[in-house]
Amino acid sequence: MRFFQGKTFYSLALGTLIGGLLGLAAGCSQGIHSPADQARLKFAISFPAERSVSPLDGRLLLLISTDDKREPRFSINDSAGTQQVFGIDVEGLAPEHEAVVDGTAFGYPRHSLAAIEPGEYWVQGVLNIYQTYHLKDGRTLKLPPDRGEGQQWNRKPGNLYSQPVKMRLDPQRSQTIKISLDQVMPEIPDPPETKFIKHVRIQSKLLTDFWGTPVYLGAHVLLPAGFEEHPQARYPLIVYHGHFPYTFEGFREEPPDPNLEPDYNERFHLRGYNRIVEEEAYAFYKYWTASDTPRFLIIEIQHANPFYDDSYAVNSANLGPYGDAINYELIPYIEQKFRGLGEGWARFTYGGSTGGWEALATQVFYPDLYNGCWASCPDPIDFRAYTVVNVYEHQNAYYLESRWKKTPRPGQRNYLGEVLCTLEESNHRELALGTRTRSGDQYDIWEAVFSPVGQDGYPRRIWDKLTGEIDHETAAYWQEHYDLRYILERDWKTLGPKITGKIHIYCGDMDNYYLNNAVYLMEDFLKKTKDPYYDGEVDYGDRAEHCWNGDHSSPIYISRLRYHQLHIPKIMERIKKSAPAGADLSSWRY
Fold first, then answer.
1. Range of 92's domain?
2. pTM over 0.85
């Protein structure tokens, strides 16, 4: 889980809504305002020919901010401190031609330009450029490609933007403000290699066939101490699932920088958390190289795609066969290159949040390929608790069903239960950033992974992005294909014998995104299993927020940095109990 466009060569992709209602299958419209609600202010946005000689497609974003400490493009989020964004789709926008953002553009958190109070603001434009994909199944899609940044529109190499300018805005004043996207976001350098950290990248045949263009998978490999000195050793493999990593995270071969200026972490209310991160990364290096630490290969996978910073490591109608590509192409390549044992008893997986869901899903969908998963704070593993929504029974995702009142469903909370944003707000932010499931953010990627292909070729909506009305036909598809609790219960007769002793799930009971609700439902099922009993573990952290991973002895801001030290000993116990006769238990124990 991650919570880090008229006629002159452009057009509004879905038009303006009257009365704030919408029922288009493609998604939602650009605006929800009646004519009386329209602002008179307009923004005419273009890019110079030196930035592109060809017309461009994409999502054009207008950013308005009162924050003078950082650029508006880095200030759009679900927090109370978010700034304002408006978005329109552009198709074939030619250099030097203007696209107009006006009162019909859909915005977040204010939906209309008319709702912006007159005043002084920092203003910036960004074009998130789309690429045209011609898929093997005949679909033609326009999507934002990943360019090595992990699907981040505000720093994607090649995207165009303008420098922030402070100006006075009055939405009811008839005025057209011109903005030139004369800046381009820079390329991201390749991460360096070290004695311990190596990087691999392969072209996936499975994904290339699906997308109709070359698609690559990457991984960062942490080599064990003594790798070069023990050429006969072959190693067990751990897949550490999570979001797009620039390099192997949390591993530092040098002591912390004594001159590092301490920062302030808003989430943990700590000053100097950047120093703590470096200290823990160096502590992991010392643990990793200690003489009594078991020797493993640990990998973090790069599988960013046009919808998100990773694929959720499963096969999907919209993303393609990422699960098979990872498990049958990438991992065998890594095991061959770095002397992995290459057998199911010697592969393990863990991760948190998105990585927690992936760890459990990988074990469920590829039960013979892995010998244990440790899933922390996993994204929804039972869609009766898709955060706080039962997609099978509820009618609306944003509001409780009621005859006389309209109660919003919460989206995020802190450990005291104080609500930080609603589900509607999070989804409207995504809608402003991209139509047709193209925001590159959380609810859109769940939809892209779990949904069938819609009539327009893009992912079919689980609910109307504007109103929250749930599509129960889509929900039924989700259940049969990706509801992990349902799949385990449906297929326990055949799955159970393959995953006994392999499932371990951890979650804070005050998870910020209510992910503990689905864990409760999974636990209810697992505890009732028999023939065989699941023989695993489900554990909760008292008042613990998102990222709790089973460590009862440390606060989350520490334990979230210690996945490896926490789970490697558990993996060793699993190996002792389950390794088959004749397994290599010695070459890697030097």
1. 35-184
2. yes
